[in-house]
């Protein structure tokens, strides 16, 4: 297909995103509020591929009284040429302290503790002047790498092993854990927390982006539309390595035919019963969900290149 014929907008008509605010998120939020009094700084972790979408407004509003550092993690998967525009947008949202990180390669992790120390130093530690240790609350939506970050800090600064469980699906950390030490000098503890989504996601598009980054469960949005939106975004960003990966003739915009080709190439087909004029017959059809999942997972692994969705 000629590039000039690729679609220039995405039609969200008739689509919706189911809200996901399970019990452990409501409980986690309550636990976080209860611990806030003894916290000196809030570190909000978000996915660098969606620096503007999907941040829980609650983190800024009700936790916002303390110094606030925004960590844009998974920078290895994001398009960093957009940094300046993103910083300008975030400034408008009154976010001034931002660090990009990659927990899989320890990138920029060493900047975090000096930045936090400086922020706390210039803030008003009202209740806590007598206590020499600093306590940090890590917050963010699910699966952005909050627990990974804590483990990373601990390994780099204390040469200690993992203290918090990490996993590829959203919803791994279920409650506010006990204090985890991440540095000796300055003495610094971090509270890990469960990923908490906004009870009302701002738009279908934001929900779609959150889902593509793995922060909401796929089925709440639907793999088929996520795959379609991903294809649209790859084309918009001139990232065409999917053409080679799936041995296509050229860039395309018809998700159904793409998923069919992916399914056949990966051998992801299934037998279904069809009722015909001569009775029931078994026919082989492409497994569209499995194909969509492969397409989405490849993006999440960075196989199509670095792409920022905002
Ligand atoms: N590519 C990449 N993957 C990362 C990075 N940091 C974390 N991950 C991966 O992201 C996934 C989620 O990491 P977690 O640390 O469990 O995320 P979390 O925010 O604690 O998730 P919840 O506890 O579910 O809210 C894991 O598969 C990590 O290996 C990063 O910088 N880059
Ligand atoms: Mg976690």
Structure write-up:
It is a peripheral membrane protein. Pfam families: MMR_HSR1. InterPro entries: G_CP_dom (IPR030378), GTP-bd (IPR006073), GTP-bd_ortho_bundle_sf (IPR023179), GTPase_MTG1 (IPR016478), P-loop_NTPase (IPR027417). GO terms for molecular function: GTP binding; GTPase activity. Its main location: mitochondrion. There is one protein chain. The protein is α/β, with parallel strands linked by helices. It folds into 2 domains: 23-191, 3-Layer(aba) Sandwich (Rossmann fold); 202-300, Conserved Hypothetical Protein Ylqf, Chain: A, domain 2 (Orthogonal Bundle), CATH 1.10.1580.10. 35% of the residues lie in helices and 15% in strands. The protein is built from 11 helices and 8 strands. It has helices at 23-35, 57-61, 83-92, 112-121, 146-158, 204-212, 218-221, 223-236, 241-245, 255-266, 288-300, and strands at 41-47, 68-73, 98-100, 134-140, 180-183, 188-191, 269-276, 279-286. The strands form 2 sheets. It has a 6-stranded mixed sheet. α2 (57-61) links the parallel β1 and β2. α8 (223-236) packs across α11 and α10 crosses α11. The longest helix is centred in the last third of the chain and has 14 residues, at 223-236. It is elongated and about 85 Å long. The relative contact order is 0.16. The structure holds guanosine-5'-triphosphate and magnesium ion. Magnesium ion is lined by residues 146-147, 172-173, 192.
In CATH, the architecture of the largest domain is: 3-Layer(aba) Sandwich
Shape: elongated
Number of domains: 2
Report the sheet with the most strands, covering strand number, pairing sense and barrel closure. 6 strands, mixed
- β-sheet strand percentage: 15-25%
In total, the number of strands is 8
- Gyration radius (Cα, Å) is 22 Å
The CATH superfamily of the largest domain is P-loop containing nucleotide triphosphate hydrolases
Bin the helical content.
25-40%
Number of H- or I-type helical stretches: 11
- Flag low-confidence runs: none
Compressed to H and E, one letter per element, the order equals HEHEHEHEHEEHHHHHEEH
What are the distinct ligands in this entry?
guanosine-5'-triphosphate, magnesium ion
């Amino acid at each position: 297909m000629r590039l000039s014929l690729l679609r220039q907008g995405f039609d969200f008509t008739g689509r919706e995103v189911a809200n996901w605010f399970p019990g452990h998120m409501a409980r986690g939020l309550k636990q976080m509020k209860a611990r806030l009094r003894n916290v000196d700084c809030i570190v909000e972790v978000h996915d660098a591929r969606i620096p503007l979408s999907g941040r829980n407004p609650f983190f800024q509003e009700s936790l916002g009284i303390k110094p606030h550092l925004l960590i844009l993690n998974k920078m290895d998967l994001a398009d960093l040429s957009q940094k300046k525009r993103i910083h300008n947008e975030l400034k408008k949202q009154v976010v001034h302290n931002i660090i990009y990180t990659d927990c899989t390669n320890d990138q920029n992790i060493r900047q975090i503790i000096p930045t936090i120390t400086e922020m706390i130093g210039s803030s008003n530690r009202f209740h806590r002047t007598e206590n020499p240790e600093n306590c940090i609350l890590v917050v963010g939506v699910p699966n952005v790498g909050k627990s990974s970050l804590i483990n990373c800090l601990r390994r780099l600064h204390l040469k200690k092993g993992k203290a918090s469980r990490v996993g590829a699906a959203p919803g791994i950390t279920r409650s506010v854990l006990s204090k985890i030490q991440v540095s000796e000098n300055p003495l610094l503890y971090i509270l890990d927390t469960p990923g908490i989504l906004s009870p009302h996601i701002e738009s279908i598009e934001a929900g779609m982006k959150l889902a593509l980054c793995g922060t909401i469960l796929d089925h709440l949005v639907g793999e088929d539309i996520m795959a379609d939106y991903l294809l649209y975004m790859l084309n918009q960003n001139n990232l065409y390595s999917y053409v080679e990966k799936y041995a296509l003739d050229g860039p395309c915009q018809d998700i159904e035919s793409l998923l069919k080709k992916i399914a056949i190439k990966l051998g992801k087909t299934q037998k279904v019963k069809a009722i015909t004029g001569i009775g029931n017959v078994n026919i082989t059809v492409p497994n569209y969900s499995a194909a969509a999942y492969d397409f989405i997972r490849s993006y999440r692994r960075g196989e199509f290149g670095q792409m920022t969705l905002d």
